[in-house]
Amino acid sequence: MIVLGRIGAPCGVKGWLRFKAYGDDPQTWAQMPQWWLGREDEDVAAWRTCKPQQLRRQGGDWLVKLEQVDDRESAAALAGCHFGAPRPQLPPTASDEYYWDDLIGLQVVNESGQTLGRVSAMMEAGAHAVAAIEADATTAPGANDATNAAGDKPQQRLLPFVDAVVKEVDLAAGVMRVAWEAHW
What we know:
It contains 2 helices and 13 strands. It is mainly beta. The chain has 2 domains: 2-89, Beta Barrel (Elongation Factor Tu (Ef-tu), domain 3), CATH 2.40.30.60; 100-178, Roll (SH3 type barrels), CATH 2.30.30. A 7-stranded antiparallel sheet has the order 4-3-7-1-2-6-5. The longest helix is centred in the middle third of the chain and has 5 residues, at 72-76. It is elongated, with a radius of gyration of 19 Å. The two termini are 35 Å apart.
């Protein structure tokens, strides 16, 4: 299951819901025949299907109208749910586009050939996405000398996921090449 976003508060009295998209093109998701909804603490097998009827932008928010969610109370019951779809149900991406889930776990290597760590999370930060990079056993010696306050964990790096920083994503090789120095 690829998580695409999170349902927020109801909007109005006719069952519309705000949602936070974990991607930059949610309008294509309206073309999917169904979404799956579930809570973070639920097993994916317990997620239920629903059909998106309409999807629109309102100010800075994304809104969705789901089939059989016709009033504010029904919409409020879904607040906090994640929504997603199995990989085969997702719309295809362009050659330079990626689902965030595909980026998690990639080894991050800079232009000098130093391994900075692995992508542990992706997040939206206003103008662009950000990749959280955690050091791991494959990290080059000296590349992550800083530790946290307890002195037992390498630092986390937050890299802007933009063309100026991310030079190449090779999903087949499991590598993301970046213009980012180890000491930054």
